[in-house]
Every structure is written in structure tokens, then in C-alpha cells.
Amino acid sequence: MAAVTAPTRPLPPLVVRAKQGAAAAGFGRSCRDEVGRLLATLAAAAGAGPVGELGSGYGVGTAWLRAGLAPGGRLVTVDLDPAAAAATGALFADDAAVTVLADDWRAASGHGPYRLLFCDGGGKQGGPDAVAELIAPGGVVVLDDFTASDEWPPRFAGEVDELRLAWLSDERFAATEVGTGPGVVALVATRLA
Ligand SMILES: C[S@@+](CC[C@H](N)C(=O)[O-])C[C@H]1O[C@@H](n2cnc3c(N)ncnc32)[C@H](O)[C@@H]1O
């Protein structure tokens, strides 16, 4: 009997354009499609938002967030790297729902608090203390690119993963890990009201 394979779901056209731009620039740190689909799904639940992204890169995550954004929603993304911010800005130049900032991640605080925040650059290493105030009560934060661990506390390269532990045990958040590919997980946390 022939093997049954799942059809590959088409990508949103803007995601395809962003990926092409990232590839042309040699930027290899865009989010995986699995993370992108998670972002689009969560963005659809964020209503008028705002939805935020720390670390635009070349706009792949931004394009996924935009694909899910509810009607009337708005999206703010920031990148410290002027080339990355310019590339993402060019993708959304005609889109009034999207604001692209060429700045440090902290500049995003002036546009929040966020119903959904993809924490993917700058503030990521500071843990929940660094970004908690950017997230609205009931809002959700997503961090990706963690290596799956079946231990508690979670470990990475033999050491306790303090960043992940901080998120998973912070009393201001309800948090869990979601598999996003072979051996990789994203962290999803809801800020408690
Ligand atoms: C993993 S990449 C972002 C990928 C993007 N979110 C995506 O899914 O396509 C991280 C980005 O964070 C940016 N970054 C690093 N430090 C930053 C800071 N202090 N403030 C803002 N952005 C920063 C980098 O320039 C880089 O483009």
C-alpha cells in the first residue's frame, strides 16, 4: 500500500515574499512555519490587539502575525538592525495596520500593552521581568527556539535552562511548552489578570 502523506499547506503569500527577502539577504533566523502558524492562530484571537513582535528580522514572523490579525487589529514590530527593519518596513509599506520601528525592543513599550507578543529579539534574554509590563492582563507571549527537554527543571546542554524555568514558574503567568518541530519547543505564556 502506498504511504499516505499529509499535503503541505500553502503559505500565506506575504510569508512567501518575506521568506524570499530573508533568503536573498542571507538571514537564517526567521521563525519556522510551525511557529508562524501558531502566531497566526493566536493573533486571530487577539481582537483589536495590539499585537507586538520584538525582533522583526526580515518580516517572516511579522507576515505570519499579519496573516492572522483580526479585522481592525494592529501590529507593531521592532528591530535594532536598520537593514532588518528596512526590509520588514518595505514589506508592509502600504499596510496601515502594521508599524515597523527601527529601534531597540524597549521602544515597543510605547505602543502596548499587547494582547499578543512574539518575544524574539532583544528582551528575550531578560526573562519575564524584562517584558511582563508589555503584556496586557490576559495577553499571551510566545518565545521560540528552545530545545525540547523531558526533565524538570528543563535542561539545555546539561545545565538547568534558567530562562525557561523562569517563564514556567513565574506566578504572573500560566505557561506551557508547545512542540514546534523535531526536538524544538516554543514557550507560550498567558499573563494572569
Ligand atoms: C530571531 S531574529 C527575529 C526573527 C523574526 N521574529 C522572524 O520570526 O522572522 C532576532 C532579531 O532580533 C533583533 N534584535 C537583537 N537585539 C535587539 C534589540 N535589542 N532590540 C530590537 N531587536 C533586536 C535582531 O536584529 C534580529 O533581527
Question: What do these coordinates show?
Answer:
It holds the Pfam family Methyltransf_24. This is Transferase. InterPro entries: SAM-dependent_MTases_sf. It comes from Actinocatenispora sera. This protein has helices spanning 13-25, 33-44, 60-68, 82-91, 127-131, 162-169, and strands at 51-54, 75-79, 98-102, 114-119, 135-147, 155-156, 159-160, 173-181, 184-191. The protein has 193 residues and is an alpha/beta fold. Strands 3-2-1-4-5-9-8 form a seven-stranded mixed sheet, with helices on both faces. The protein starts with 12 loop residues before the first helix and ends with a strand. The model has no long low-confidence stretch (mean pLDDT 95). S-adenosylmethionine is lined by residues 29-31, 53, 55-57, 60-61, 78-81, 84, 104-105, 120-122.
Give keywords:
single chain, 9 strands, 28% strand, 7-stranded mixed beta sheet, Rossmann fold, 193 residues, 6 helices, 30% helix, binds S-adenosylmethionine
Q: What is the helix tally?
A: 6
Query: Largest beta sheet, briefly?
Result: 7 strands, mixed
> What is the domain total for the residues?
1
Order of helices and strands: HHEHEHEEHEEEHEE
The shape, in one word, is: globular
CATH class: Alpha Beta
Instruction: Quickly give the structural class.
Output: alpha/beta
